[in-house]
Amino acid sequence: MNSADGAPEAAPGHAPHQASGTPRPRIGLLGTGPWARRTHAPALAAHPGSEFAGIWGRRPEAAAELAREHGVKVYEDPDALFADCDAVAFALPPDVQAPLAVRAAAAGCHLLLDKPVATTVEEARAVADAAARNQVASVVFLTLRFAEPTAGWVDEQAGRTGWFTAAAHWLGAVFPPDGTPSAYADSPWRKSKGGLWDVGPHALSVLIPVLGDVTDLTAARGPSDVVQLTLRHTSGAASTAVLSLGAPQAAAGVGLELRGAEGVFALPDWSDVPGAYGRAVDALLTSARTGVPDPRGAEFGARLTEILAGAEEQLGD
C-alpha cells in the first residue's frame, strides 16, 4: 500500500522508530544455543540502529546467563518479550521457531528468522501467511545472501543471462567420521534432518535468485548424510547441489560454480558472519520502515521448505 505521495507505507504493528530523536526499534532474541551466543546476541548488541531489548530461552538458566553477558532483560515468557519489542530474532530449532514466529507476528513483531523457517510445508506456510496477514516485515538469515562479498556477487550474477548449468557443494564436518564434532553437534534437529535441511537452504538461496525457481528436482543419497539434488530452473538451466553435515574434516568445504554464455563464475570466499547478521537486521528494519517486502523474507523461506520437503519425500524419509 502506498501513501498519498506515492511512498510505501510502513508496516503496521510495532513500526520501528526512525525519526531523529525517537527511540531505536527494540529487538528481542529467542534462543540461547551456540548460534545465539556466537552470532545473534553479539550482533544485536553491536547493531547501531536498534536496541537489544532482551532474551527468552527454553532453558531459563542459559537465558539468564546470556542476558547478563549483554546487560539486557531476561524474559520468562515469550509473549512478554513480544509485547516489549518491535521485532524479534530467532535462534531456535525450526519446529520450535515456526509456531513462535506465528505468535510473534500476531503480536505485531517483525521477524528475523533462522533457516530453515520450518521443516514442514504446513508450518512454513503458516509463518509466511502470519507475516502477510499481520503486515509485519520478515527476513530469513541466509548467510550467503548477507555476507560480503557473496551477497554482492549473487546480485551481480542475477543480472546476467544465458546460464547453462551450476554446481554447488556445502560439505560440513559437524558430525565428522574422523574427528571431533563441532559445537553444533548437540543439536537434535541437525542429527535428525542432516545436511539437506541445515545447509540446503544456503545452496538454494544462491541458485534460485540467479537461475530462477526450481521446476523439477531429483534427490539421491550418498555416504553418511550426503544428499545430492539435481534441479531444473525456470531459466532452463540445470544445477546440482551436494549437501552434508557428516563430511570428513579434510573433505569439508563450500563452493558454487556457475557456467553460461558469459563465462564461468565461482562464489567468492567470505568470513564475516556477525557483519552479515547486522546487514540482515538492516534489511529487516528497512522493510519494516518502508513496507516493501524483502525478497529473502518468510515467503522465500516457505518456498525453500517446499523444495526441501519434496526432496525428502523422494528420499523416503
Q: What keywords describe this structure?
A:
disordered N terminus, alpha/beta, globular, 6-stranded parallel beta sheet, Dihydrodipicolinate Reductase, domain 2
Task: Provide a quick synopsis of the model.
With 317 residues, the chain is an alpha/beta fold. It has helices spanning 34-46, 60-70, 78-84, 94-106, 121-133, 150-158, 188-198, 200-211, 273-290, 298-315; strands spanning 26-30, 51-56, 73-75, 87-90, 110-113, 138-140, 163-171, 214-221, 227-233, 238-244, 253-260, 263-266.
Topology at a glance:
Elements: E1 26-30, H1 34-46, E2 51-56, H2 60-70, E3 73-75, H3 78-84, E4 87-90, H4 94-106, E5 110-113, H5 121-133, E6 138-140, H6 150-158, E7 163-171, H7 188-198, H8 200-211, E8 214-221, E9 227-233, E10 238-244, E11 253-260, E12 263-266, H9 273-290, H10 298-315
Parallel strand pairs: 1-2, 1-4, 2-3, 4-5, 5-6, 7-10
Antiparallel strand pairs: 7-11, 8-9, 9-10, 11-12
Helix pairs in contact: 1-9, 4-5, 5-10, 6-8, 8-10
| CATH class categorisation of the largest domain | Alpha Beta
Strand residues, percent = 15-25%
The largest sheet is:
6 strands, parallel
Bulk shape: globular
Class per helix and strand makeup? alpha/beta
Radius of gyration: 19 Å
CATH topology type of the largest domain? Rossmann fold
What is the averaged pLDDT score?
92
Number of helices in the DSSP assignment: 10
CATH superfamily of the largest domain: NAD(P)-binding Rossmann-like Domain
Would you report the number of β strands?
A: 12
Question: N-to-C SSE series?
Answer: EHEHEHEHEHEHEHHEEEEEHH
The number of domains: 2
Helicity level: 25-40%
Output the strand order for the largest sheet: 3-2-1-4-5-6
Q: Unreliable stretches, pLDDT < 50, 5 or more residues? A: 1-13, 15-20
Distance between the termini: 42 Å
- Please tell me the CATH architecture of the largest domain by its name: 3-Layer(aba) Sandwich
